[in-house]
Amino acid sequence: MGATGHAGLIPKIVVTPMKISLRAVGYVHGSDRIVSNRFPLLIGRSPEAALMLHDRWVSRMHCQIDEVGGRFILRDLGSKHGTFVNGERVTEVTLSLGDQIDIGMSRFVVAEQDAACDTASVEIALPLGGW
Questions:
Q1: Per the CB 3.0–4.6 Å rule, which of 24, 51, 73, 87 could disulfide with 43?
Q2: What is the chain's alpha carbon radius of gyration, rounded to the nearest angstrom?
Q3: Could you say which DSSP state residue 30 is in?
Q4: What's the 3-state SS for 30-89?
Q5: Do 49 and 34 form a contact (C-beta atoms < 8 A)?
Q6: Residue 92, CB half-sphere, CA atoms under 13 Å: how many?
Q7: Torsion angle, alpha carbons of 64, 59, 45, 28, to 10
Q8: What three-state secondary structure class fits 22?
Q9: Each residue's pLDDT expressed in tens, for the chain with a length of 131 residues
């Protein structure tokens, strides 16, 4: 008999990809909205970054978000001033709904993405003004 008490039956694990959006709640300059389903998503001051933040506290290649097995992983890329999630400096973390991300002077909150989107993607909604 197996661990479930049924001979030959193996429990099936179904992973549903998490769909998130990052909503800007702090100081951000940039586009009104960025939607990406290409990973890793590079965030930094460099023109090569998918999300370019014009902030002297942000490194050229500051951090990135990658989608791995339906989860979104945030990695700091050796930034000088750090990447913070929920007030803690991180090098790598799996993002969860409600997490607060601080990158330089910008603050984002991880929220659930519109259910209409059927691909793994991250949506970053940016206000046109500051806080």
A1: 51
A2: 17
A3: S
A4: CCCEEEECCCCEEEECCCCCCEECCCCCCCCCCEEEEEECCEEEEEECCCCCCEEECCEE
A5: no
A6: 5
A7: 80
A8: strand
A9: 444 454 556 554 444 455 666 777 665 554 434 456 677 889 999 999 888 888 899 999 999 998 888 788 999 999 999 999 999 999 999 988 888 899 998 888 777 665 555 444 455 544 433 33
